[in-house]
Amino acid sequence: MIEDEWKTTNQARFEHRRELFPVVQRVINFSLSLPLYYGDRKDAFTFSTHLDGIIKSLFVKPIPV
């Protein structure tokens, strides 16, 4: 079921008229960011202590190569 929703989201990204693209892109970006804020059943949007770990892992901690 989740795979179908991702497929629908990606199709919506490319099938709209160019004048609607900025609006569609904002909605798509919001839907793609939701797992970062609400993953693991934690509300990182409201409680920023959960978001702190996500930001550190994305931007502060280097990826070992």
Notes on the protein architecture:
It is a single chain. The chain is an all-alpha fold and about 60 residues long. It has one domain (about 1-60). It is about 70% helix and about 0% strand. The chain contains 3 helices and no strands. Helix 1 (about 1-15) runs antiparallel to helix 2. The radius of gyration is 15 Å and the shape is elongated. It starts with a helix and ends in a 5-residue tail after the last helix. About 0% of the residues are buried. The mean pLDDT is about 75.
Tags for this model:
3 helices; mainly alpha; elongated; Isoprenoid_synthase_dom_sf; 65 residues
Query: Termini separation (Å)?
Result: 35 Å
Give the overall shape, derived from the CA principal axes: elongated
Strand content: under 5%
Largest sheet: none
Helix-strand topology string: HHH
Work out the count of structural domains.
1
Q: Structural class of the helix and strand makeup?
A: mainly alpha
What is the helix fraction of residues, given as a range?
55-70%
The gyration radius over C-alpha positions equals 15 Å
Global mean pLDDT: 76
Number of helices: 3
Poorly predicted regions: none
Q: Give the total of beta strands.
A: 0
Secondary-structure blueprint of this entry?
Elements: H1 2-14, H2 21-38, H3 48-60
Helix pairs in contact: 1-2
In short:
The protein has helices spanning 2-14, 21-38, 48-60.
